[in-house]
Every structure is written in structure tokens, then in C-alpha cells.
Amino acid sequence: MKRIAVDIGGTFTDIVYIDETTMQILVDKVRSTPWDIGQAVMDAIKKIQVDLSEVDLFIHGTTAGINTIVQKKGSKMGLISTQGFTDVLEMARGNKKELYDYMWKKPKPLVPRYLRLGVHERTTHSGEIIEKLDEKEVKEIIKKLKENGIEAIAVCLLHSYANPENERRLGEIVKAVWPEVTLALSHQVAREIREYERTSTTVINAYIEKAVVHYLGRLNGNLKEAGFVGQLLVLGPSGVLGIEAVNEKAIYTLASGPIGGAAGAAHLAGLCGIKDLVTMDVGGTSFDVSVVKDGVNVEKHQTEIMGYPVLMAGMDIRPIGAGGGSIARVDAAGLLTVGPESAGANPGPMAYGMGGREPTVTDAALVNGLIDPDYFLGGEVLLNLDLAKRGVSDIANKLGLSLHEAADGILSVARNNMTTATMEILVGQGFDPRDFALMSYGGAGGIFATSLAKDMSISRVIVPPEPGVFSARGILAMNLVHTYAQAYIRAMNELDIGELEDIYEDMENGALKILTAEGISRDAIEFMRSLDICFEGQRYYVETAVPMGKLLNHEKIKREIRRSFEQLYEMRYGHLINAPLRTINTRLKAMGKIKEISVSEIRQGKEIHRKAMKRGREVYLDGNLMETQIYERAELLCGNSIPGPAIIEEPFHTTVVMPGQKLEVDKLGNLIISSGGA
Q1: Which residues are CB-neighbours of 285 under 8 A, at least 6 positions away?
Q2: pLDDT by residue (tens digit) across 601-628?
Q3: Is the pLDDT of residue 513 over 70?
Q4: Which tens digits make up the pLDDT trace of 107-162?
């Protein structure tokens, strides 16, 4: 099988090609094209010069959905809700998310007040319909929205998660009267409790659907014109998905590239026998951190895009604005800040020579010798050291520091921001950083990884092969995954196991139909059931596994579920509460396994080959300029051992080994660095 993965980032678009018969692997990068993201995909394909007609599988991580929200270029929206609940989007949670930021404002609703219309109907929280839908009123609302030039309609009726009958009927009327309009029904998009979050998710799905469908359709057409006749899949929040699934639920595209890296890290950790791992993906625009626990990516059920909540199960990845393109400034109070604003792909860092006027993290790394200006992207892009020095000098003059001290300060502030984000995702979930290894990837990951690990008392750093395009490569290790959730509010002691099993069987039958249509055989499909459970009176819940198969001994099943919940709760919060339990949602993850990619071992040898030894240079490390040996990664062998200080170079990545640290190369080509952090 021949596979291609393309991952669009804020600065670069990465491509990976693998021929499993010959084990040929091609990797490359092109500049992202924010004005037309699809152009970068075709540029990348053209650059690696592969015959698309021979490619069986093409997997794509796209930013089409998130770009639509960021740029506010989605469809003109209308919202139909239960009469009296049209202001849910405006009211939100009524809280102030940034407590000490007096400039903080709630995000502006994607649907203006005059286009949020209410209809008379009512369903109770238990699913009883106490007021039928006023169908005449629905038709009047549709007419009004049509007159206002609406392109998409979101429908979110009160308690439709418990019984969608009224909402389903409303959707039928909309499609009968106005078949061409984009329509999103909340019970199809997010059948969960929490009115504001459910409404927000439904609105966002409708808002981006037209842009996503158009983009994927155009990309599919361009690929076919180039000779591609294989299967096109899109990266989702937990795995990859077929085009039809994404067209029906456009919010899946909001996951984008970092998911691929996190999945690839879990896969590689399994091959290395590592169960607990924290990942850091440092690209040109952002730093993304995630956790692998017991060999499985830690997930969450809600995310946030530009301040808008989205109910969507997927890998828990926390991004901050700290990457190679993050801009360094001295603020009005005389403090050095780095990010979140990025120079992006255009103009990029000052050293690119494309018109950038403010220094970035990349400029600082170049000034201090961490990056070779003649070997950036394997020498394809020559960096201008003088421009980088000019930008960093401006920071140095404002702070009264030397040039190298200012550059080191920029890198330290960026690293501290990364450390804070990493500590939050670990300690915030009850994990001890000392129990984890750190896997670093992304174009700029290796510059920070070893110092960050030492700061956090993490003893081992792993830099995988081809770390600069690891997210794209990780996409190729992912399976087809569909997730389902349905509100199920019950007291645990009143739980009807038979009813619960019926719900799971309905979900599984629907998932089976979709995965079969996507080309997965029945024996390659797996299901994972779970329940969201909390103590009575709590707002937040813990996802708890439910046994598979026929649930025969009902009381035993209840005890097993309770025991699992209590173990998870105590691990996360450090205590238990003497209170009854309550279920909130049923969940199902349906996985269609794609054939795994074979992994080859590298050549062995204790002695470092002279081809691996490059000319050393002065590098500013630990507050001093010191002569540092440089190595070419492609020439290193399994068993090679390198003491710090050292720098390992490859076309799309640089790994820094600090003084006192030690690097070893394993049989899979991973760089294993003892950080001295524990």
C-alpha cells in the first residue's frame, strides 16, 4: 500500500509519503498559503514528485474549518430555538473567564439577535412533549430568515437531547420549504445536556459547513485531476474519517494537525514500551501539549475555538501561542513578552528576509547559534543572520542586555510559557511529571525539549525520526474513529442495564453501517463503551468504561462501573465524596483499524561515523558561549552515544543537548536524551 499524509500548519505544510512494499519514505515541507490553503497541498504533492495514480490512501489534516471561524468568513446564520431561549448564545455562562483581565470580553455571537428566532414548543428534561411544535409558526420563521439572506440555519430546541421529535419535525419542514439551505439540528450534532454549549456547537457546525464542504470538494476534484483514484480521508478529533462523515459534521475538521502528532506519539511510545508520555509539538505558530497515559491518548469531551465552546470528544491537546514565529516585544512596563502573536508564514521571522519587522523565537535561536543559517530546511531557505541580529538588538537595547543575553531571554520566556502549559495539563489531571517521559517534535521542538524536561524533573526526552513532519507522519498511524454521545441522566442505583444495553446496540449498529461504507471489514471494527458519571449535585463528570458484550448480571455490572468511577475520581482529585452517583451521558467510540505501517530498524554501531561529525560552532548555552560539536542525524547509528553540549541537525529540525546531558540512539532511530531532570 502507498500512503500520503498532508498536514497544514500556520507556517509550513508538511507531506509524508510511504511505500510499504519498498519502505521508501519521502518527507518535505512547503510554505503554507493562508489565502488558499488548498494550494499548499498541491504544491507539496508536486514537490515530492509522486505518481498519485499509484497512491491508495490520502489523509489530510485541514485548517479549513478553524480558518473560517478565525477569519469570521462563515455562512450568514439564523438560529431557531424554543420560544424564550433565543438569547442563550448572548447570555452564555454568565461568567468571566479571565478573572483579572478587565479588558476581557465575551466572543460576539455568530448569529445576531435579530436572526435568532423562537418557536412555540416544549419538551421536558425527561423527554415528555408537553407542547407540540407550531408548524405554521415554523414556516413564518423560515420565510423571515429567507428574506434576510440567510445561508445556514441552526436548530436547537430545549431538551431535544432527551426527545428530538419536535426538532426532527422542524428540520423536515425546513428541508421541504427550503431544500438548498444548510441545516444543522442539535440532536444530530451534539445530543448532550448543557443548553449553551449544545447551541454553540450546533451554530458552529452550520457556520463552517459550507466552507468545509466546498474546500474538500475542490480538493477532491484537484486530486482526481492529478490522477488520484484511491481513498481520501480527513483528520478528525480522535482518528481519521471519511469525506461523507465530515460533510455531515463539519466540526470534526476543527481538530486539525496536532492530533496527528499526539496519535503518532502514542503509537511510537507503544513500540518503545513506554506507557506514560507527555508530548510537545512546537511549530511555527503554536506549542501544543498532550498526554499519553497507559499507552492511550488522554481525551476530553469539550473544546474551545476562539472563545466558542464545542461539544466534541477527542484527544486533549492544549495549545498556546509559542512557536518559532512567535514575536518578541518589550511592553509598556518594560517586560519582555513572547507571543501569542506570530509572524506566520508571511512575512515570517526577520531572518527570512520577507519583510518581517519584529524579532521572533527563530531569530533568537539563530543569533545564539542554535540554528545553522545555511541549513534551514536542509539549505533550501538561507536565513539572514544580520537581520535576526538587528531585531534582537532592538530588544537588547530596551532591556540593557547584551545581544546573546537578549536572545537567551526570548528563548527562556517562550520556554517558560511552554513549561506552564505542560504543568497544567499534567498536574491539573493528577499526574506527576516525574512519572512521564517527554516526546518532542515539530520544527522547533528540539530547541526547547531538553531544558524544559530538566525544569520539570522529567528524566527522559525522546525525539522521534523526522520530528519536523511528525504530525503528518502520525496521521498515517491513525485508525478510522467515530464517536457518539447521548444524554442519559439517571441515578446510579436506579440504572436500567437493559435500557443501557439497547442504547449501546443502537449506536453500534449505526457505527457499523458507517465504517462498513468506509471500507472497513467487520473483523477490523472495535467498540469501546463508556458512561459520564458524577456525584449527585456536581457539574463535572468522569468518563468511566462500561464492559463490552451482553450485560447479563446487572447488579455486578453496576458494582464494576461504580468501582471504576471511584478509582478514576480518586486518582484525579485525591479524595472521594460520600454521595450518590449519577450518570450524565452514554458514549461510544467505534474504531475501524487500518493496516499498521511497518517500522524498520536502523544500522548499528558504537563508533560515530566521521560523516556524522559536522564542523562545530560557538553556541550560547547556560549563559556562556561555548564551542559545540554538531552532528548530522541521518549518519548516526543505533548505539551511538553523544555527551552534551551538542547539536543534532537534520533538514527540518534541530535538537539541542545541554551540557551535562547525554544522548543515545535506539534501534528505531529515536534520540533518547537523559535530561538530568530527576
Answers
A1: 9, 10, 11, 321, 323, 325, 326, 342, 344
A2: 899 988 999 999 999 999 999 999 999 9
A3: yes
A4: 899 999 999 999 999 999 999 999 999 999 999 999 999 999 999 999 999 999 99
Average pLDDT for 18-40: 87
Cell 421541504 -> residue? 176
In tens, the pLDDT along 54-93 reads 999 999 988 888 888 878 889 999 999 999 999 999 998 8
Taking the C-alpha atoms of residue 414 and residue 365, their distance in angstroms, rounded to an integer, is 11
Residue 359: C-alpha distances to residues 363, 393, 445 (Å): 6, 9, 19
Distance CA 56, CA 621 (A): 47
User: Distance between CA atoms of 243 and 252, rounded to whole angstroms?
Assistant: 11
**Strand 525-535 relative to strand 581-592: parallel, antiparallel, unpaired?**
antiparallel
Picking from 534, 515, 539, the residue whose alpha carbon sits closest to that of residue 526 is 515
Q: In angstroms, rounded to a whole number, what is the distance separating the alpha carbons of residues 292 and 297?
A: 4
In the numeric block, the cell 509559542 is attached to: 322
Helix (H) or strand (E) holding 455: helix 445-455
* The pLDDT of residue 677: 64
| pLDDT at res. 273 | 93
Residues 6+ apart with CB under 8 A from 556: none
pTM: 0.86
Which H or E run includes 30? strand 24-31
Is the CB of residue 585 less than 8 Å from the CB of residue 532?
yes
Element (H, E) at 317: strand 317-320
DSSP state of 508: H
Domains of the chain, CATH where assigned: 72-205 (3.40.50), 480-592 (3.30.1490)
User: Contact at 8 Å (CB) between 362 and 344?
Assistant: no
- Which residues in 426-512 belong to E strands, given as ranges? 437-441, 460-463, 480-491
CB count within 10 Å of CB 634 equals 13
Measured in degrees and rounded to the nearest 5, phi and psi for residue 376 equal: -70, 130
DSSP, collapsed to helix, strand or coil, labels residue 622 as coil
Single-letter code of the amino acid located at 209: E
Please, what is the end-to-end C-alpha distance for the chain in angstroms? 43
Which grid coordinates belong to 605? 554501531
Closest Cα partner for 591 from 511, 519, 517? 511
Q: Counting beta carbons within 10 angstroms of the beta carbon of residue 180, is it exposed (0 to 12), middle (13 to 18) or buried (19 or more)?
A: exposed
Find, among 193, 315, 297, the residue nearest to 254 by Cα: 315
Distance CA(283)–CA(325), nearest Å, equals 8
Over the stretch 396-426, which tens digit does the pLDDT of each residue have? 999 999 999 999 999 999 999 999 999 999 9
Q: How far is CA 374 from CA 96, 343, 369, 408, in A?
A: 48, 21, 12, 21
Give residue for cell 499519553: 292
